[in-house]
Specification:
alpha+beta, Gyrase A, domain 2, four-stranded antiparallel sheet
């Protein structure tokens, strides 16, 4: 299947149902007649500017970023990946440690995710405080943020 058709199929799939992983997307594509590998789907996800957000049926799902926002998100995502040293939680706070001078850019990435459970963020020079509405969502939010480091 050609790339443009496969990518359109991916967009159709994520509009119809919540898809939380690239592995799931590979399986759903196979059911639609596309033999895409996980590596191919990973490139497609990046090219399409798909981001993960909180879902209803599952913790996170892929959605299409609005307009040209995916290009900005990709740049901030790269910065986030390169400068974050650790992510830890305490109560309803998530503390992100970065290299010196990296907190503002890494914080912009967190803000760009528009996570509904995040009330706000505060960045210093090498530390970000992320306030989560309730303690129930802290672990899932930490896992999501850590997923952007790989």
């Amino acid at each position: 299947m050609v790339r443009s058709k496969r990518q359109q199929l991916i967009l159709d799939i994520i509009e119809r149902q919540e898809v939380g992983t690239q592995g799931e997307l590979v399986e759903l594509l196979r059911k639609q007649g596309s033999d895409a590998t996980q590596a191919t789907v990973s490139r497609d996800v990046k090219e399409l500017g798909l981001v993960k957000v909180s879902g209803t049926e599952r913790k996170y799902k892929y959605v299409k970023a609005d307009g040209g926002a995916h290009k900005i998100a990709a740049k901030y995502g790269n910065i986030f990946k390169e400068c974050v040293l650790s992510i830890r939680s305490a109560s309803n706070l998530i503390v992100v440690k970065t290299v010196t001078g990296g907190a503002n850019s890494a914080c912009a990435f967190i803000d760009h995710l528009n996570l509904p459970q995040v009330i706000g963020t505060l960045a210093g020079d090498d530390t970000i405080f992320t306030v989560v509405a309730d303690g129930e969502n802290v672990d899932a939010t930490v896992q999501l943020l850590r997923s952007y480091l790989v």
